[in-house]
Amino acid sequence: MVDSNKKKLTTNFGVPVADDQNSITTGSPHYTLLSDTHLIEKLAHFDRERIPERVVHAKGTGAHGYFEVTHDITQFTRADFLSQIGKKTDLFVRFSTVGGEKGSADSARDPRGFAVKFYTDEGNYDMVGNNTPVFFIRDAIKFPDFIHTQKRHPAKHTKDPDMMWDFLSLTPESIHQVTILFSDRGTPKSFRHMDGHSSHTYMFYNQAGEHCWFKWHFKADLGFQTLTDAEATELAGTDPDRATKDLYDSIEAGEYPSWTVYVQIMTADDAKNYKFDPFDITKVWYHADYPLIPVGKMVLNRNPENFFAEVEQVAFAPGNFVPGIGVSPDKMLLGRLFSYPDTQRHRLGANFHQIPINASKAGLTNNYQRDGVMNIDGNGGAGPNYYPNSFDGPEPDAQYAVPAIDVTGLVDRHPFVLSDVDFVQAGELYRRVMSDADRSNLISNICGNLGQAQRRIQLRQTALFYKADEDYGKRVAKTLGLDLTEVKNLAAMSQEERVKATMS
Ligand code: HEM
């Protein structure tokens, strides 16, 4: 007899279970019987435990916390959660690596995902960014190809330097992000020790309906600290879940990680005349032109109670806006708006918004969408399931309209034409921002990896480094033992000529 005060083990339908250690079988010999419905339920549920891992950012961890407004930016945005100094909003954050599978090492060289879900009084707002202010590509149509090169080779089923550097060298707009990724910033010390950025430009609009463009920046209060390549490689073997543990343990110990949150603001007029396309995610806006404006503080102070329920099932989407924040004409961002809820319907099911970690605050969700797999929120009860109706159903409210944007021109596949301006910021980062030690580590990190690719691909990529900065290209060429004259010749060519010259 079990102590009657103890919780009773039950089936999924609440019926007490008498024995959870011995299957029902025949006497002798022991053939298991179909009549053991508890065994069958237990195995069948187990068989369905795994859901598809995220197609990217599969390995990650998360925590709960809050955002607190410290500065007034209501002149730019009507967002309610930013409306008052001192206002606090609950949030959930997930940090991740990008290319690896669910079991991969936290210390891998990779950008880190930095996704924040704000549970605001006007619905959920997601900031789905990275720890880098820029990205490899600037058109969503290239994303699946890019990600294939970061994953496994179709035949060898291993990571493949040829695939990766072939794509990057054929996609020169990646040079800025490649320079960040192969610096020690590509291996942050932990999730607590890294910054977060929206990378994209978004729209702010205020109560008067005036809009401007902005970018988010979350600066780690512990500073952006990094690992060397040797340290990261060692950790991948000895403690592959180090960053996951670090976040959990620091919160358990009451050492709450925090970030000071800023925005950069560009007026709509400035955007028309800036020195490069302000919606191009391969570039940063210079802080000298658009200084960081403080907004608030983000603190993580509570661990998930259940990893699967919260971290695995959380679903962020860059299109989850609240009034006061909106989309910009960045074609990477616009592609992302489709991709996230689409993959989440596949990964979690049509009613993924009802999973508690994804649900808006109680009572905020009111619409006419009904039914679907795993509908658990009452499904609108007996209320009307169509609009318009004259039965007191929820109504749209025009006061939440997003400002209209003027658009002209032809509908076409407009290319971003590669130009010298696409190499400027990578060169500046190398020359002006990095220390001597940073540059040495960068060269060594690149060469350790690029050195495993075919020589023609090494030459093509090194020409791009040379275009960004001559010293950068020369040092990579020297370390890889490439002929510098050949690199210089390739650097002087157009991308089309360079590709032709390095085809075989
Ligand atoms: C067109 C380009 C992109 C596409 C199509 C894309 C697509 C995706 C998809 C399908 C997921 C999995 C989502 C899920 O299963 O819940 C994902 C995750 C993620 N992406 Fe992107 N992505 C793109 C670019 C970016 C960029 C530029 C950033 C950062 C600025 C970013 C940040 C993230 C983050 C942080 C996650 C993980 C979210 C989480 O923790 O659940 N992605 N992306």
What does this structure look like?
- With about 500 residues, this protein is α+β, with helices and mostly antiparallel strands.
- The protein folds into two domains: about 240 residues, Catalase core domain (Catalase HpII,  Chain A, domain 1, Beta Barrel); about 120 residues, Hemocyanin, N-terminal domain (Up-down Bundle), CATH 1.20.1370.
- The chain has 15 helices and ten strands.
- Strands 1, 2, 3, 4, 5, 6, 7, 8, 9 and 10 form a ten-stranded antiparallel β-sheet that branches.
- Strand 6 and strand 7 form a beta hairpin.
- Helix 2 packs antiparallel against helix 3, helix 3 crosses helix 12 and helix 4 runs parallel beside helix 10.
- The chain is globular.
- The model has no long low-confidence stretch (mean pLDDT about 95).
- Bound molecules: protoporphyrin IX containing FE.
- The site of protoporphyrin IX containing FE (HEM) has 28 residues, from strand 2, strand 3, strand 4 and helix 9.
